């Protein structure tokens, strides 16, 4: 049986973003597992403009090369971990745009969240969970909330409290369990 593939998606495209260091940390923890393949996926690499497809993504009639490349990448995964900051109590526009570009590629898959902000990015994840429902992504309960004050030295350099590692593992356990269970739906 093929191993489950999990994407760790970098939710910020801002120059000097913290998201990249956070995603690499999650990747390092997830890589310890032998039963899954994990890969960091950087939205920035796909040069997605603001949604520029004429048809609704749910029809899958993609006309642009960037959409086709993004579609092929997301389609190849069974589950996702979204690494997201909080922008004005929501998710970054770049992440919402990247989610909006596709539809079926997200359906019947599982997701977990790692967020950060002054209040752990929790408001960002609450709004992201509403988007997950519409994309038919099963979002797990366990989540990792990092504080700008205590997990980033001088609010800048990522130095996570070691206690977060067990939270990452708890979130991954749920993502792997639901990602595996939903495979049966996707194989129909
Ligand atoms: C446009 C914008 C809005 C922000 N709004 C919030 C916010 O509502 N709550 C919060 O905790 N932090 C907020 N911040 C601070 C971010 O948490 C902080 O800048 C973080 O480093 C952003 O993640 P990134 O570096 O990966 O892009 C905001 C930052 C930006 C750039």
Describe the fold and architecture.
- The mean pLDDT is 97.
- It is globular, with a radius of gyration of 16 Å.
- Strand 4 (109-117), helix 4 and strand 5 form a beta-alpha-beta unit.
- It has helices spanning 19-30, 65-75, 93-100, 122-134, 164-186, and strands spanning 4-10, 36-42, 79-85, 109-117, 137-147, 152-153, 157-158.
- The two termini are 16 Å apart.
- The chain has a five-stranded parallel beta sheet with strand order 2-1-3-4-5, sandwiched between helices. It has a two-stranded antiparallel ribbon with strand order 6-7.
- It is an alpha/beta fold.
- It binds flavin mononucleotide.
- Flavin mononucleotide is lined by residues 12, 14, 17-19, 85-89, 117-119, 148.
How would the blueprint of this fold be written?
Blueprint: E1 4-10, H1 19-30, E2 36-42, H2 65-75, E3 79-85, H3 93-100, E4 109-117, H4 122-134, E5 137-147, E6 152-153, E7 157-158, H5 164-186
Parallel strand pairs: 1-2, 1-3, 3-4, 4-5
Antiparallel strand pairs: 6-7
The structure holds flavin mononucleotide.
Mean pLDDT: 97
Radius of gyration, in angstroms, nearest whole number: 16 Å
What topology, given as strand order, has the largest sheet? 2-1-3-4-5
State the end-to-end distance.
16 Å
Share of helix among residues? 25-40%
Secondary structural class = alpha/beta
Quick structural gist:
This protein has 188 residues and is α/β, with parallel strands linked by helices.
Keywords:
about 190 residues, globular, binds flavin mononucleotide, 5-stranded parallel beta sheet, alpha/beta, two-stranded antiparallel ribbon, 7 strands
């Amino acid at each position: 049986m093929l191993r489950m593939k999990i994407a760790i998606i970098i939710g910020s495209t801002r120059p000097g973003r913290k998201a990249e260091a956070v995603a690499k940390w999650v990747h390092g923890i997830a890589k310890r597992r032998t039963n899954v393949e994990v890969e960091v996926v950087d939205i920035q690499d796909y040069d997605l403009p603001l949604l520029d497809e004429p048809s609704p993504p749910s029809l899958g009639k993609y006309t642009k090369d960037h959409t086709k490349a993004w579609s092929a990448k997301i389609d190849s995964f069974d589950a996702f971990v979204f690494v997201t900051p909080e922008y004005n109590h929501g998710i970054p526009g770049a992440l919402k745009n990247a989610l909006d570009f596709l539809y079926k590629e997200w359906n019947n898959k599982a997701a977990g969240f790692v967020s950060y902000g002054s209040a752990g990015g929790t408001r960002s994840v609450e709004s992201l969970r509403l988007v997950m429902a519409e994309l038919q992504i099963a979002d797990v309960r366990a989540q990792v909330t990092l504080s700008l004050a205590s997990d980033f030295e001088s609010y800048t350099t990522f130095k996570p409290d070691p206690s977060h590692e067990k939270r990452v593992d708890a979130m991954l356990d749920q993502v792997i369990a639901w990602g595996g269970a939903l495979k049966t739906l996707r194989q129909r």
